[in-house]
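DATA CLASS: polypeptide
GOAL: derive structure tokens

***
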Amino acid sequence: MMTHEQERFVKDFVEHLFAGDAGVFAGAGLSAGAGFVNWAGLLADVAEDLELQIDRETDLISLAQFHINAKGRNKINQKILEEFTAEVEETENHRILARLPIGTIWTTNYDTLIEDSIKKAGKLADVKHTVPQLANSKPKKDVTVYKMHGDVNHPNDAIITKDDYETYHVKYQPYVTALSSDLITKTFLFLGFSFTDPNLDYILSRVRMNFEKNFKNHYCFIRKVKMGEKGSEEEADFKYNSRRQALMINDLKRFHIEAILIDEYADITAILNEVERQYKRKTVLISGSAEEYGTYDRNEAIGFIHKLSGELVKSNFTIVNGFGWGVGSAVINGALEVIHKQPGKFSESQLVMRPFPQFETGKQKLPELWHDYRVRMTTYAGVVVFLFGNKAVDGAVVSADGVRKEFDIAHAQGLVLLPVGATGYMAHTLWEEVMADYAKYYPTAPAEFRPMLEKLGDESLPLPAHIDTIKLILTLFNRPS
């Protein structure tokens, strides 16, 4: 169960995702979840070389500098390569962030987990870890990843010593400028950060000085101090650490950073899952095809699809459609009619069309292409509406197996399934199945949902009545969980 402040964060961050101005700033804690070392782990051997104890060192930047002063940089470079090139799996947090429409990610991490996750999500990352790279932009990029402290494959350039930090604002001034601009224009979620990094402190301070009244609000996750954990074994220590944490959280407000308190680090994954759930449930896949429209007149059926599409856009939903025969054109026309009437209020980005490949042009067989396409199409959405679902085969009209396949894929992905049984054919078959095994398909649905789903199969109702039911269901499933 999320706290009120966590629910408020989710709602606000989802709004920023739709606005296109959400960003992420990732620190060492994000990679630690995958098994990579933090700074103390990275420099443990370095401290031992200097006959120091890593547990007693609080200024790790100075520790790195001491080692370079005494023994040169080679060992630190080697440690970066050893520790951050290991084969590890990205965390679920990495995967969620990669799937979300976040166009800007800043990180102080050397590893490649962020860009690897973005690639696995089928997106293109434009990775920048040197100043010259800032001048160029990769075409058709989905995400820009700024590695402000360098990259594991170039350890000699990694920002790690006191010298590196002291000269950063001169040698890497373009990074300072770029991050300052993003902090003014985007809402950031800081993940895995302790807020002890001098570079970030420097940049936040200057942004605050110059743009105090126009500073964007940002968020971070902070785990609450617990009695009995390391450093808080005694009640006096627990009270002291709690007091210090409260003061630190209050200090972050100077930089317009709101701390979202969590009990366990696993709570971050649950919160990010809710962000993704709420974001995706504002996107509706309309699945269907129609060679004929059963008991309905063609114009009546087309008008229903047209109006449904337009009403979804008016309700600020995004529509995904695969251009199904007899359905796709009405979806497009209905959405564009609303968008073009009020271009200042609605956007063509609310209509995502994914026409299916029509014939083979390479080695991959058409059924394989269609399956991959359906999987990709369903990943955009959180809800699927199934309409009609028939096609012509050898002069006969049969139920569309493609609509069935989209149903199975969507169910496997945990999407909300809304077969409008009243439209007949495959949609009716699917409606009968979900009603017969309701608990299987809707294990966590609100109690109010079942009677609404039942109405979608009522053929005695006029088609436009089902639009109101669908809108009510979407409102129900877009409530905070």
About this structure: DSSP finds 21 helices and 14 strands in the chain. The radius of gyration is 27 Å. Residues 235-252 form the longest helix (18 residues). The chain has a mean pLDDT of 89.
